[in-house]
Amino acid sequence: MLERTVQIVSNERSTDAYYRLVVRAPEIAPLIQPGQFAHVRIAPLKDALLRRPFSIFQVQGDTFSILYKTVGKGTEALSRMRPGDELSVIAPLGHGFTVPQPGAETPLLVAGGYGMAAMYLLAQRSPQKGIVFVGGRRRVDILCEAEFQSLGWQVRATTEDGSHGEKGLVTQPLLEEIRNPQSAIRHPKLFACGPTPMLKAVGQIAEEYKVPAELSMDEHMCCGVGVCLTCVIPIKSGDDWEYQRTCSEGPVFDAKDVAWEGVK
Amino acid sequence: MNLSVQIGRLVMQNPVTVASGTFGYGVEYAQLLDLNQLGAVTVKGIRLNPVRGNPTPRTAEVTSGMLNAIGLQGPGVDGFIQKYWPFLKSLPVPTIINIWGTTVEEYAEVARRFHALGGVGALELNVSCPNIKEGGAQFGTDCKLLAQVVSACRKATTLPIITKLSPNVVSIAPYAKAAEDAGSDALAVTNSYPAMAIDIETRRPKLANVSGGLTGPCIKPIAIKLVWEAFKAVKIPIIGMGGIQTAADAIEFLMAGATAVAVGTANFYEPQTALQVIAGLREFMQRKGLNEVREITGSFQPGK
Ligand SMILES: Cc1cc2nc3c(=O)[nH]c(=O)nc-3n(C[C@H](O)[C@H](O)[C@H](O)COP(=O)(O)OP(=O)(O)OC[C@H]3O[C@@H](n4cnc5c(N)ncnc54)[C@H](O)[C@@H]3O)c2cc1C
Ligand SMILES: Cc1cc2nc3c(=O)[nH]c(=O)nc-3n(C[C@H](O)[C@H](O)[C@H](O)COP(=O)(O)O)c2cc1C
Ligand code: FES
Fold first, then answer.
1. What is the number of the ligand closest to the CA of A223?
2. Residue B129 pLDDT > 80, yes or no?
3. Given this model, what pLDDT does residue B131 score?
4. Which domains occur in chain A, in start order?
């Protein structure tokens, strides 16, 4: 974990409300593991003080990037920043995904919306190539299909309005794959990032079909480094559960550890 | 130039600490800044037993500040000693342990436990947390109860006691005086302000606890006035806090009567804040030709 002032290399609209931001961060880039995040201070926000967390999307040389959706004042202000502008980032943060060992399980990635951003490094660094199940409301919510394909991954897209890929929820093709007796994938493991209802559904599938799963949880954050106890989720502990921090123990948790009855 | 100050028997190398609950147990920030530059490390509130805390969402950003209702989640005395004390004990800078309870006896028992531990810099009694049903602010908004808590802790320990007052009172002077008379070595002014925010799209509160405590730069002018009023009422030192972001903010607290200051919410967005405040304070003293930081305390001139 380092705090650095970094320079924006590029900040371009990708589709609709999604942008890609590349920053030069030579000390941070080599430390990044799949599923970790950056905590970004958006200087033009004068009276909105808190940093915003974003998954690290890609790492290239001495740069890393994030893929973000404009949803509020922070991300709107970020989208107006230009190459050469500076940002303060604390990164890399959190415990990311477990990269599969060579010859071990085959990853099935499940992503909703900007959850796709957390998946790229895992897809790139996994020795086994699997399938990416990506879902969104509309066509514009399906991000970077081609980039996953060029890593040699199969991409199965679903949209709720049917404007791209299959119509429905991302968990439908996932279920078909897991139930398919002819599937070439022997030892699947699920890795998911997206809205909480999607993560819960993936967690249920993992439990029902006894497939291991890691989930990257999306909780509101404040400090991002473990001091404020804002970002907690209920994690099983003996017969009971306890709150653990998404920014520190997470954001990636083993699906079987999450005490869903306590998740809001 | 001498930046050192004294809070009871506790000597701080400079007057800047961090506010309880905004700095974890110190270890979390050790990778981002040199803790040994601080005047003291102040840890998150601890009661006798572990506390699960409130449901989420626990914080919300508001204009120039934030709301929190964490619910004092914590590991309890034993959990703290096992998990965090070895690290804190190894630091050359002193640790201020923030404690709370739901009864007068519990406060005293926690004080006794930390007294027995040895090596603790000071105890800060949180009698002002707005986010829990029992304990906390109930002790800080009743002069008699406040005096009982402070004197029970006074009997339990010879460690320096800092009583952290609630801002949620008509006048802070009688509370400051009550704490002083009951044997408190110092005061901390102030805790967060009861407040709330509503999401107008869903008509739901922005905090699961509905209301919480307001902190950050937006509370600074109110906190400055409370420090000034407490300063006029007592002789014991005051640790001033509420919205400090810069050395100028800290100097304002000192001039209003604080002997030391604590950086809180600003740690969340700029972990270097406390160190920047120390550097800026040095610069100010140089510019004004001051040799002792103590000279700034209460130097505010309200008259003409
Ligand atoms: C571990 C993690 C990884 C993330 N990765 C990405 C990513 O790769 N791409 C992306 O577009 N977004 C990502 N998000 C969500 C992103 O942090 C929010 O969209 C962003 O904080 C919204 O800020 P805003 O000022 O535009 O919105 P506002 O609604 O104005 O923000 C108000 C407050 O709510 C918080 N907030 C609002 N929405 C969210 C949310 N969904 N999650 C957490 N906090 C929120 C903000 O941080 C801020 O404190 C991630 C969140 C987490 C926790
Ligand atoms: C997230 C959060 C947690 C806090 N936890 C505690 C606590 O455990 N005990 C306590 O006495 N004060 C606690 N406080 C209050 C701070 O110590 C401080 O009094 C207050 O935040 C005002 O300073 P600031 O505006 O610089 O943050 C907390 C504040 C915040 C924001
Ligand atoms: S965001 Fe502060 S503890 Fe996780």
1. 3
2. no
3. 59
4. 2-93 (2.40.30.10), 106-216 (3.40.50.80)
Atom of ligand 3 nearest to the CA of A224: 1
Interchain CB distance below 8 Å, A223 and B268: yes
Whose CA is closest to A60, among A111, A12, A101, A20?
A20
Q: Interface pTM (ipTM) of the complex?
A: 0.94
Residues B261 and B40 sit within 8 Å (Cβ to Cβ): no
pLDDT at B250 over 90: yes
| Location of structure tokens 């009871």 | B8
Distance CA B57, CA B70 (A): 9
Structure tokens at A186: 């022997």
Ligand 3 probe mutation, A37, A50, A228, most atoms within 8 A of CB: A228
Q: Best interface-test mutation with A: which of B54, B59, B62 has the largest number of A CBs within 10 A? A: B59
pLDDT in tens, chain A (264 residues): 999 999 999 999 988 789 999 999 999 999 999 999 999 999 878 889 999 999 999 999 999 999 999 999 999 999 999 999 999 999 999 999 999 999 899 999 999 989 999 999 999 999 999 999 999 999 888 888 899 999 999 999 999 998 998 999 999 999 999 998 888 888 999 999 999 999 999 999 999 999 999 999 999 999 999 999 999 999 999 999 999 999 999 999 999 999 998 777
Tokens encoding A110: 């499940």
CA-to-CA separations, A111 to A60, A145, B11, B175, in angstroms, rounded: 22, 11, 54, 55
Ligand number nearest to the C-alpha of B127: 2
Residue B21: which of B53, B64, B48 has the closest Cα? Answer: B53
Taking the CA of residue B82 and the nearest CA in chain A, the distance in Å comes to: 18
Nearest CA to ligand 2 atom 29: B21
Alpha helix (H) residue ranges in B214-300: 220-233, 247-256, 266-269, 273-288
Of B56, B65, B13, B57, give the one whose Cα is nearest residue B35.
Answer: B13
Pocket test for ligand 3, best of A225, A243, A244 (most atoms within 8 A of CB): A225
- Is the Cβ–Cβ distance between A66 and A58 less than 8 Å? no
Q: Are A122 and A204 in contact (CB under 8 A)?
A: no
Please give the Cα distance from B9 to B162 (Å, whole number).
11
Homologous superfamily of the B5-295 domain (CATH): Aldolase class I (3.20.20.70)
Active site residue B153: no
**Does B242 contact ligand 2 (Cβ within 6 A)?**
yes
